[in-house]
Amino acid sequence: MSESEESRMTRSGPTNSQMAVAQNRPSPPQQIAFNRHELGAILRVYGRKVAEGEWRDYAIDHMMEKAVFSIFRRTSEVPLYRIEKNPKLARKQGAYSVIAPGGMILKRGHDLAKVLRVLDKRRHLSVVV
Questions:
Q1: Would you say residue 1 has pLDDT above 60?
Q2: What is the 3-state secondary structure (H, E, C) of the chain?
Q3: Once rounded to an integer, what is the mean pLDDT over residues 95-120?
Q4: Overall pTM surpassing 0.85 (yes/no)
Q5: Which of 28, 52, 54, 86 meets the CB 3.0–4.6 Å disulfide criterion with 66?
C-alpha cells in the first residue's frame, strides 16, 4: 500500500480493528451534576435566605453517584442543609432530597421545586417557636 493510500484510509475514519478496540474500552465514569435549571431553582431559594440574613455560604460537590449543594450559616460550621441529586433513586423515592444536619431527610421527591419548599416552611416554623 502506498503512502497516499494510507493517508486516504486514515482520513476516511477509524478502521474496523480500531472500532473494536474502542467498543471494548470502558467509558470513563460520569460525574453527577446539577443542570442550569436545577441550579437556578436552588440559587433562588439560597439568594432569598441570604437576603434575609439566615444563610451565608454554600458549597457544590459533584461526585460519581450524586451531586450535593451544601448550605452553611457560617463558613466554619457543618452544613445547615444539603440538597442532593441522586439519579439512582429517581425511579423509587425521587432523585432530589433535602437533608438536615443530623442526616434526617426532610423532603424527598421527583420535582425539585416541591422539594425545596420545605426550606421555606422551616422559616415559618422557626418564627412561631
A1: no
A2: CCHHHHHHHHHHCCCHHHHHHHHHCCCCCCCCCCCHHHHHHHHHHHHHHHHCCCCCEEEEEECCCCEEEEEECCCCCCCCEEEEECHHHCCCCCCEEEECCCCCEEEEECCHHHHHHHHHHHHHHHHHC
A3: 91
A4: no
A5: 86
